[in-house]
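Re: that backbone. Tokens:
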């Protein structure tokens, strides 16, 4: 589980940012969290770059639709297209 809605003030202060960084910070401040929101835990599924989310159910449409497309292309190429000439 990854934490979200966490107060980053301590991490910001530990770095020792300059006054210029503090001025820039004001442009990016979205809001402040109340104490209740900071203690709330959220379940977040983290997907890293290059990973696909796991599917809980397999869908037969993933097989049927491409098969129909291939059959349709073959029927057009070998049945319908030769009749057009």
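Recovered sequence:
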């Amino acid at each position: 589980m990854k934490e979200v809605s966490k107060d980053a003030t301590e991490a910001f202060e530990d770095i020792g940012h300059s006054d210029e960084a503090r001025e820039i910070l004001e442009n990016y401040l979205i809001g402040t969290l109340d104490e209740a929101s900071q203690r709330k835990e959220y379940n977040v599924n983290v997907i890293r770059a290059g990973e696909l989310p796991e599917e809980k159910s397999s869908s037969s449409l993933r097989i049927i639709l491409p098969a129909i497309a291939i059959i349709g292309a073959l029927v057009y190429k070998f049945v319908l297209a030769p009749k057009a000439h």
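The mean pLDDT is 77. The longest helix spans residues 61-84.
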